[in-house]
From TrEMBL:
Name of the protein described by the UniProt record: Uncharacterized protein
Species this chain originates from: Anaerostipes hadrus
Amino acid sequence: MIRLQVEDYCQNCEEFKPETQVMSRGYVGTGCKVDTIIRCSNAQKCEKLCEYLKKEGGNV
């Protein structure tokens, strides 16, 4: 499965830099399942900025 893990404020962001995390899991005789998560490499920085702006009374 492929999942896009981004916030609403990421929409049309010029600083969006995609990074992927691929996790595979499987058991003997059952095949392998692969999960891919796509997120922005700046996600933590933007989350902190968003929290700060909310504290300061900004509209995010």
